[in-house]
Design goal:
It is elongated and about 60 Å long. The longest helix has 22 residues. By secondary structure, it is α+β, with helices and mostly antiparallel strands. The protein is built from 5 helices and 11 strands; from the N terminus they run αββββαββαααβββββ. The chain has a single domain, classed as Electron Transport, Fmn-binding Protein, Chain A (Pnp Oxidase, Chain A, Roll). The structure holds flavin mononucleotide. The site of flavin mononucleotide has 16 residues, from strand 2, strand 4 and helix 2.
C-alpha cells in the first residue's frame, strides 16, 4: 500500500499535481479531473456538484475550472462563499480535499480557453441559462437552434470566424489554503497529510503565506 512521503513535503501542491497527472494517464479513468465542488449561498444553503478542473497552477497555488457565472455556484462564489473540493480516484486508492476562495479568472484567460472549445460546446455555453427551469426538452432544442442561427448571422455580419465567449461564462481560480492528501492503508490505517496556509487579498489575487502541515489519524 502507498504511503505519503515521510516527512511530509513542505508544499503539498507539487504532489497534488503528480497525483492529478497520474490520474489522467492511469487506468483509463473517466473524467480523472472531476472534482466535487461545494459552495454556500448568502442565505446559508450548501450545495455541491461536479466540475472539471482544467488547470492546477502550483505557484502561487490555484485550481481553474469553467462555468456559467450566473449559475447558483457562480452567484455563491461571487458573493464570497468559501469553497471546498474533493477528487476521488477509487482505483488509485487516493482522495484529495481542498478548500479556498474562488475568484473569476482574467477575461483574456477565459477568452483563450473558450476559443479552444469545439463549436458545439461554444454554442451550448451561449444557449444555456444554467440551472434555470425549462418547460420541456424541446424548449432547449429550439433555443439551441435559434442560438446557433443567431451566432452564424453575427459571424457573417462581422466576417469573423470565431464565436466570442459569452460574458456570463468563464473561469474561476480557486486559491487554495487547505489541502488534504489521503491514501488507503492496510487494516484501515489510511495515511492522511493535511496542509494549511494563509491567503491575504492583494491586487493580483492573493498573497500566500507558507504552508504548515501535520499527519492525521485515519
Ligand atoms: C462529469 C461532470 C463534469 C461536469 N463539469 C462541469 C464543469 O466543468 N462546469 C460546469 O459548470 N458544470 C459541470 N458539470 C455540471 C455540474 O455538475 C452542474 O450540474 C452544473 O454546473 C449546475 O450547477 P449549479 O446549479 O450548482 O451551479 C459537470 C457534471 C458532470 C457529471
Amino acid at each position: 500500500m502507498e504511503q505519503l512521503p515521510e516527512p511530509l513535503p513542505d508544499n503539498p501542491l507539487p504532489l497534488l499535481n503528480e497525483w492529478l497527472e497520474h490520474a489522467k494517464t492511469a487506468d483509463n479513468l473517466p473524467n480523472p479531473d472531476a472534482m466535487a465542488l461545494a459552495t454556500n449561498s448568502e442565505s446559508g444553503t450548501v450545495s455541491a456538484r461536479i466540475v472539471l478542473c482544467k488547470q492546477l497552477i502550483i505557484e502561487p497555488g490555484y485550481l481553474v475550472f469553467y462555468t456559467n457565472y450566473e449559475s447558483p455556484k457562480g452567484i455563491d462564489m461571487d458573493s464570497g462563499s468559501r469553497v471546498a473540493g474533493v477528487f476521488h480516484w477509487d482505483t488509485l486508492n487516493r482522495q484529495v480535499r481542498i478548500e479556498g476562495v474562488a475568484i473569476r479568472s482574467p477575461d483574456d484567460e477565459s477568452d483563450a480557453y473558450f476559443a479552444t472549445r469545439d463549436k458545439e460546446s461554444q454554442i451550448g455555453a451561449w444557449t444555456s441559462t444554467q440551472s434555470q427551469p425549462l418547460t420541456s426538452r424541446q424548449e432547449l432544442r429550439d433555443k439551441h437552434v435559434a442560438t446557433a442561427r443567431k451566432l452564424a448571422e453575427l459571424q457573417e455580419e462581422s466576417s469573423k470566424l470565431e464565436i466570442p465567449r459569452p460574458p456570463f461564462w468563464g473561469g474561476y481560480r480557486i486559491w487554495i489554503d487547505s489541502v488534504e492528501l489521503w491514501c488507503r492503508g492496510e487494516a484501515r490505517l489510511h495515511d492522511r497529510g493535511s496542509w494549511t496556509r494563509q491567503l491575504e487579498a492583494s491586487d493580483k489575487g492573493f498573497k500566500v503565506g507558507g504552508w504548515s502541515c501535520t499527519r492525521l489519524q485515519p
